[in-house]
Write a structure and sequence with these properties.
The protein is built from four helices and six strands; from the N terminus they run βββαββααβα. The chain is an alpha+beta fold. The protein is globular, with a radius of gyration of 15 Å.
Length: about 130
């Protein structure tokens, strides 16, 4: 993967965030048929609206890895708030087994920037999450 800079009227940036978050009580929601595919559709749709490029996205049975290239105007906390609330609301509406949960996601998450290691390393790590099990 080549590091691509975002060129806007007043800025040039390359901000890559690696997010990891999980469902409440570490429930294995991605083992249910259709949940993972629908979650990925919802995240892709919302990221497109927010001008966020998905570099890599993978779901394990009880957590999610997202590697995103984001505009400098969006804070990581705002990105998580929007993605979790949007996907959680729709998943609870569409899947009966999730509808009984007060919230799909925990309030916590992990985020790091691609500063210490190169973006290729993080991308490969995220893409290989399912293969480790």
């Amino acid at each position: 993967m080549k590091d691509i800079y975002r060129h806007k009227n007043t800025s040039v940036s390359m901000i890559n965030y690696h997010f990891v978050f999980c469902p409440r009580y570490r429930r294995k929601i991605f083992l249910y048929q259709g949940v993972e595919e629908r979650f990925k559709e919802l995240v892709s749709q919302k990221c497109k609206e927010m001008d966020i490029e998905i570099i890599a996205m993978e779901c394990d049975k009880d957590h999610v890895h997202l590697f995103l290239n984001c505009p400098p105007t969006l804070a990581p906390s705002y990105i998580m708030k929007i993605l979790k609330s949007y996907s959680g609301t729709i998943l609870r509406r569409e899947f009966e087994l999730l509808s009984k949960m007060p919230n799909v996601w925990t309030r916590s998450y992990f985020v790091s920037t691609a500063g210490e290691v190169c973006s290729d390393t993080i991308k490969k790590y995220v893409e290989n999450q399912k293969k480790r099990s």
